[in-house]
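Revision sheet: structure tokens.
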Amino acid sequence: MRRDSVQALALLAAGWALTLWVTPWSDERVNDLFVYRSFADPFLAGGLPYRDLFFEYPPLAAPAIALPGVAGTGDEAFRVAFAVWTLLLAGAVVLLCGALAELSGGERRRALLAAALMPLLCGALLRTHFDVAPVAATLAGLWLVVAGRPRSGLAVLGAAVMLKGFPAVVVPVALAWLWGRGERRAAWQGGLSCLAVIAAVGAAALALSPGGAVDTVRYHLERPVQVESVPAVVLLVLDGAGAGEAVLVESHRSNGLEHAAAPAIAALLAGALAAAVATLTLLAMRHGGGADGARRLLLASLAAVTAFAVLGKVLSPQFVIWVLPLGALALAWRLPALAVAVACAALLTQVEFPAHYADLVAREPAAVALVATRDAVLLLVLALAGRELVPQRHEQLLNRRGSPVRAGLD
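Predicted:
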């Protein structure tokens, strides 16, 4: 293993130790480990998701959640095993960020070290949620696409979707990028590979229990606006202005808000998400070979993930993990404003959660302002990433630095 990789992994491990033993990084008073344990125990005893118990995640999340339970499903045993499991996954994320930076004309060492700082930016949030698993799968899929193996890459992206749904927004971006490069056969074959993985895993879930699988979809469709989301901030502003009451509800293992305008606002932002992904997909189609093209694909893909995180009706704190690779790569590409914005979003999330989550639920003005600022910074991240993809801006960027590779990657 290269020396810079070893250094980055050592830095990651040191940060992981902080999240276990040093305050404030170790604050885990609110986490999802108890939820995962409630799934892992019956899974390891032979129970099946959807059929034998309600499971709120996509099918491939079941083995990812259950695996640490092999070491024990007691409180402390599972806590330690889950920390080790997520550390291994985070190590994969660090190495993939370095590899993607190298393929896209960025500085590998910068990407490695920036990604290794994830524990400092997120704290215990990183090791008490399994979101690092779909992030690693998404980056692996993108690496395969960029490295000239688009069919395998899109199959891996299909698996990532069945781990947690957000990588779905990367698929159209990757297909459009291939199409724009003239690789139309690879695009449609890759699309079929992705669809085949999703269909096979989805069919298995339906075979286990059609009703249980449908209940999981219904569960997410019926979720109220989550209290940390952009729609929730809008609803609280409306409430404060006397335009209807935002009522706190406890449901779906979370705190949400109900308001007469909630469906319309959620629908409006869902439309904004669709428009953002469509725009990023079109921008990704611009032909570019080598590092230029790879950078365009990665920027568009990770910006689409950011859009999914910030424009939905749920913005759980762990969603910020999805955005961290964009910050690491931005630093490698010498885009300091974008890198700083991602870091600020993560730090604001760590300040808010879990220390001030109860204050937010109680609608303390300072906590509401903190979350509103974090959401605004995530919107800024999306805007900054999109700006770098605008043709004129992108060409100026390349002219300033030069594009080190122009040949195709296939």
